[in-house]
Specification:
Length: 891
């Protein structure tokens, strides 16, 4: 009913020779010769460049499963993605914001735009193709077929579509009605179909070892291109004169249209997954499972360049840029590469955390979209700035520390800083960004820092060189607030450059890790500036969290791995509650999972770790002030078969020892094992334990005793619950309650339950019952024996002492199922929590008292991700001989 969040990896681009370890968000290539221009991957010779810095933006579109394909709209404003999560999504290219989702009931295998960009068509394994409006996502036509569909596409004039199905047919249909006017037959599954540029032909590629050229729209087959194994794809050249095929027989063939005569063959040492023509038709590029992409001349087929990914890992697709100067390759080595044609020089590497299925260029070449099995599509801006070395030095006075404050005050331009709109001319007059080789004086440095505080005051093309010099000066330690403000502005203009800076200058993060924003600090911003910067930074942070959500916690091993957010503390502190809660929850979940999976805290209850990780994140990144009265500590135990292992956790050093600080931001101390020895004739009677400790200024004391028992003595041996005993007055009643930590998913989760019960024959009242004290209501239903089963739909919360946290106020929808005579035989109460009224943590002891008050059994469903630990603790809190044997499952 819910998803856990995992992972960490920045959305990145690397300008470097291929390396398969990406610590940097963007590692520049120390290039020679031609380099990309600021407006995209066009070439402009500049021998003085030490490296080309990325100054574009990377956006992420998140799905719930592997993303199979992506396509740009003809105007380059939108992208459509197709995923195995049963959806296609339409997103803005500039922001990555999803504006529409097209649902299917099975995996979506392809999605494409119409020639005018007003519609998209999707193909799904649910046996349908859907045509939807881009502006709204509204489905205007659904084309049903008898078998799963692998691809669907529009004709160049938009009057027809072609759909490809698994039983070996490709059908040409009219738009928008979907009337089939022609069927092209193969003897086995068809992988792909494409119209010729003039729309007069279609080519289909099949498992039956053939590609067929057919007339459109009649569907009459005019030629067949033979291979010795399956044909994965076939495409037309831009002028429509040739076809290129890609086959598992290790060959790509170039054939003439319409005759199908093969005039050239390109060979690989393994299956060829993709073949495409360059925009001018002079070249063909092939991608192979041998880890290689080849560029060959047309029509000769002569190979002029070989591009290598990782050996023996498949290259899944290849695409040319609109100007034909670059190709993008997508590989199972978890990367996509942008390579210059014909030199073969690697311009950029775009990493993912799993196999990359496709990489395509936008129509203007300014963006590359990649799709991956890691459930993401990345939209990567192709924009660069030249970095020249040795030009700017920061010349600070020998008495810098004494002079800095007075110079800073004198340099402050009140009128320019409080101006509503940035005046570039006036700022250029105040501080000339075209500095000489003589370097930067202290006064000029402060003037530049003030300028770079203003929205649009920092220009990545014009100012990056001088900024990188400032970031290596003592001003970083002296003015962390101003430096953080500059980095906020950098993020506004380019998240790629922001990521590059953080990785290039790790000392920045060391300084900013302890930086606390001073609300009284005089920055060069008016109220509108602050509002604009905070809004953009917060959106970028949420985008970054989308990236984190898509990947595993393998990349997140300590609180320091959250360093991406260190310069953004000022903006993060102004987030609204919903944004802040979502970001903190995601961060906490990732780091909690890392702690739980590690050897140091293996077996510690996840929600206990969550509690302390959350506090560490709030203190570190959101500047939550915690005085000594708010410091807290707790003790927990990990169970072994013959021992208990006690752990002490705290928000302050344990027993005054700073070395108890863990890499996850909280303090922890593991105590000596408490042995539980068993006797031959049974379990020993009782074990006592006592310990004392301090955390910060507070002292703690813990005493407890353990009486080991054989769990087999506590439960009955019946194979299933005694259903008749669960009923009250002949009615089996169930109570379904979500926990507060489902957050915004509570309503949708309960709607899923409601749909399930409706499908099972239940009818619900239209007007829900308002509950002012939900814990009291639930306790009464359980204690009275009215509810025969209780289902807790929630993440683990609190710790091993608690069952979950519920809202105080709620609405309850009552559903009933009747027999043929109209008598109620089943009833279910679905709780829809209210966001108002507060919450209450329900302890195991309290829940156990509800259960013990019953005279009949109750079935308890525990759905938390730590259900093994959670349910066992709840089980022993109830201690009922009436309880039925329980099987614990960990999800």
């Amino acid at each position: 009913m819910f998803s856990n969040f995992y992972g960490l990896l920045l959305a990145v681009v690397m300008l470097a020779p291929v390396s398969k370890i990406w610590a940097d968000d963007l590692m520049p290539k120390h290039g020679q010769g031609e380099a990309p221009s600021p407006d995209g991957p066009a070439t402009a010779r500049d021998e003085s460049c030490e490296e080309m810095l990325p100054i574009g933006n990377t956006r992420v579109v998140l799905h719930g499963d592997s993303v199979q394909s992506a396509a740009f709209s003809p105007d380059g404003k939108y992208i459509v993605t197709a995923s195995w999560d049963h959806t296609a999504k339409i997103a803005e290219v500039s922001s990555g914001k999803v504006i529409a989702t097209i649902p299917h009931s099975a995996q979506v295998n392809s999605a494409a735009f119409s020639p005018d960009g007003k519609y998209v068509i999707t193909a799904s394994s649910d046996r349908t193709a859907k045509i939807a409006a881009v502006s709204s996502g509204k489905v205007i036509a659904t084309i049903a077929r008898f078998y799963p569909l692998s691809e669907a596409a529009f004709s160049p004039d938009g009057k027809y579509i072609i759909t490809v199905s698994s039983e070996g047919t490709a059908q040409i249909a009219e738009v928008p009605g979907g009337k089939v006017i022609a069927t092209i037959l193969h003897s086995d599954l068809i992988y792909s179909a494409a119209f010729s540029p003039d729309g007069k032909y279609v080519v289909t590629a099949s498992v039956d070892h053939t590609a067929k050229i057919s007339e459109a729209p009649s569907g009459r087959v005019v030629a067949t291109i033979l291979h010795s194994e399956r044909v994965y794809g076939a495409v037309f050249s831009p002028d429509g004169k040739y076809i290129a095929t890609a086959s598992s027989d290790h060959r790509a063939k170039i054939a003439e249209v319409p005759s199908g005569e093969v005039i050239a063959t390109i060979r690989h040492s393994d299956r060829i997954s993709s073949a495409v023509f360059s925009p001018d038709g002079k070249y063909i590029a092939t991608a192979s499972w041998d880890g290689i992409a080849k560029i060959a001349e047309v029509p000769s087929g002569k190979v002029i360049k070989t591009i290598c990914h990782s050996p023996h890992l498949m290259v899944n697709s290849v695409a040319f840029s609109p100007d034909g100067k670059y190709i993008a390759t997508a590989s199972s080595d978890h990367s996509a590469m942008i390579t210059e044609v014909p030199s073969g020089r690697v311009i950029a590497v775009i990493p993912h955390s799993s196999s990359v299925a496709t990489a395509v260029f936008s129509s203007d070449g300014k963006y590359v979209a990649t799709t991956s099995d890691d459930s993401t599509a990345k939209i990567v801006g192709q924009k660069y700035s030249c970095r020249r070395s040795g030009i700017y030095d920061v010349n600070l006075a020998s008495d810098f520390s004494l002079k800095a404050n007075s110079v800073k005050l004198a340099a402050y331009p009140e009128v320019l800083c409080q101006g509503l709109n940035l005046s570039k001319a006036k700022w250029d007059e105040f501080v000339d960004p075209s500095l000489s080789k003589n370097g930067i004086s202290l006064e000029t440095a402060y003037k530049l820092l003030y300028r770079f505080q203003k929205p649009d005051g920092f220009d990545p093309v014009e100012h990056t060189n001088v900024l990188l010099s400032l970031l290596q000066s003592p001003l970083v330690e002296k003015e962390p607030g101003m430096i953080a403000g500059v980095l906020e502005n950098v993020l506004m203009s380019s998240n790629q450059l922001y990521n590059y800076i953080l990785n290039k200058y790790p000392k920045l993060l060391t300084t900013l890790s302890t930086f606390k924003p001073d609300p009284k600090e005089k920055l060069c911003r008016n109220d509108e500036d602050k509002k604009r910067i905070s809004g953009v930074v917060q959106n970028e942070s949420m985008q970054h969290m989308v990236e984190l959500t898509s990947q595993g916690s393998i990349y997140l091993r300590s609180l320091n791995d959250m360093s991406w957010f260190y310069p953004l503390k000022r903006a993060l502190s102004t987030m609204n509650k919903n944004q802040k809660d979502e970001v903190i929850h995601s961060m906490t979940t990732y780091l909690r999972d890392a702690a739980a999976d590690g050897s140091e805290f293996h077996g510690v209850f996840g929600s206990k770790l969550y509690y302390f990780v959350e506090e560490a994140i709030e203190k570190s990144l959101f500047q939550t002030t915690t005085d000594k009265d708010k410091e807290f500590s707790d003790i927990t135990f990990v169970r072994g078969s013959t021992y208990l292992s006690p752990y002490i956790f705290g928000t302050a050093p344990i027993d005054g020892d700073p070395s108890t600080l863990s890499q996850y931001g909280f303090y922890a101390k593991r105590l000596t094992f408490v042995p539980i020895d068993t006797l031959r004739d049974g379990f020993q009677k009782e074990i006592s334990f006592h310990t004392s400790w301090s955390a910060g200024a507070d002292k703690y004391d813990s005493k407890f005793s353990i009486k080991p028992s054989d769990a087999r003595e506590l439960v009955t041996k019946s194979a299933s619950p005694p259903y008749e005993e669960l009923k009250k007055d002949g009615v089996l009643e169930g109570l379904v309650v979500p926990g507060t930590n489902l957050f915004k998913d509570s309503k949708s989760t309960m709607e899923e339950f409601k749909s399930y019960y409706e499908d099972s024959g239940f009818h619900f009242n239209e007007d829900p019952e308002n509950i002012e004290d939900l814990p009291k209501y639930v306790s009464e239903r359980i204690k009275s024996g009215q509810s025969g089963y209780f289902l807790k739909e929630a993440h683990s919360d609190g710790d091993e002492k608690n069952i979950f946290r519920m809202d105080l106020k709620a609405k309850i929808f009552v559903g009933e199922k009747k027999d043929a005579q109209g008598k109620t035989i089943e009833r279910v109460l679905l709780v829809y929590p209210s966001a108002e009224g507060g919450t209450k943590q329900i302890s195991n002891a309290e829940f156990g008292s509800w259960v013990r008050a019953r005279k009949n059994p109750v079935v308890f469903f525990n759905t938390s991700c730590w259900s093994t630990t959670k349910a066992s603790d709840t089980f022993f809190a109830c201690l009922l001989y009436l309880m039925v044997r329980v099987t614990f499952h960990r999800y």
